[in-house]
Specification:
globular; Four Helix Bundle (Hemerythrin (Met), subunit A); 10 helices; Arc Repressor Mutant, subunit A; 225 residues; disordered C terminus; mainly alpha
Length: 225
């Protein structure tokens, strides 16, 4: 049976997706009246959605402008990756010890096919982001640790937003796919140390790419802290 989302849930998901995908870049004002008209819902669901986005850290009040989409700075990125290293390296270790080999064998085949996928047009590249999301879900499930998963998922909203900065960098996407493949293969081999090390390498390179993207972006869009 299909599940009908509440108006506030639909508004939240729509605005969240637009923020993560940079359709609403940092500094975008999110007035209740304007968003209510644009999304075709009343102001109460919009108010609830904005409160959730504020709790997520994606929206914050700004003097004279109301609620705006929060900035991403170099300091933000470094702080997020400090936490990400600790969480994802442990998740990779646990996945190598507890993961279902059938699930990761499927992911291995998909990551092997990524180079051909990235040679296609932009819509096809969205399939790559879907694959990364499935990889994250598979690792989360394999950890069998709900506390670790809750912490990771809270962080990932911001990480996906940062990840989108590399969307116009095919070389980085190809390298990231190869790094993910190494992690998947280490998990399949039940090599917890290699899975953690490969995750460390991937995250270091991902952080450098994100920092480079921010530093070359327009200061009016992505101010550094």
């Amino acid at each position: 049976m299909a599940i009908t989302l509440r108006a506030s849930d639909r508004a939240y998901q729509r605005l969240r997706d637009e923020i993560v995908d940079w359709e609403l870049p940092p500094g975008s004002a999110l007035g209740e009246v304007e968003q209510s008209t644009r999304l075709g819902v009343s102001r109460t669901p919009i108010r609830e959605a904005l409160a959730r986005l504020t709790a997520d850290g994606l929206v914050a009040p700004q003097t004279g402008r109301g609620l705006v989409v929060t900035d991403i700075s170099t300091d933000n990125i470094r702080e997020m990756f400090e936490v990400r290293q600790a969480l994802e390296m442990q998740a990779a270790r646990l996945a190598a010890l507890r993961g279902d080999p059938v699930v990761f064998a499927v992911l291995e085949r998909e990551f092997l096919a990524v180079p051909a996928l990235l040679d296609q047009d932009d819509p096809a590249r969205h399939n790559y982001y879907g694959l990364v999301a499935r990889f994250d879900d598979a690792v989360d499930d394999a950890t069998a640790n709900p506390y670790l998963v809750t912490a990771l998922r809270s962080l990932r909203t911001h990480l996906v937003r940062v990840r989108r900065l590399a969307k116009d960098n095919p070389a980085r996407l190809s390298a990231a796919a190869a790094e993910h493949l190494t992690i998947v293969q280490a998990i399949l081999d039940r090599d917890a140390d290699l899975a953690a090390h490969a995750t460390h390498v991937h995250l270091h390179r991902a952080m450098r790419s994100a920092l480079d993207s921010v530093e070359t972006a327009s200061p009016s869009i992505l101010p550094s802290a």
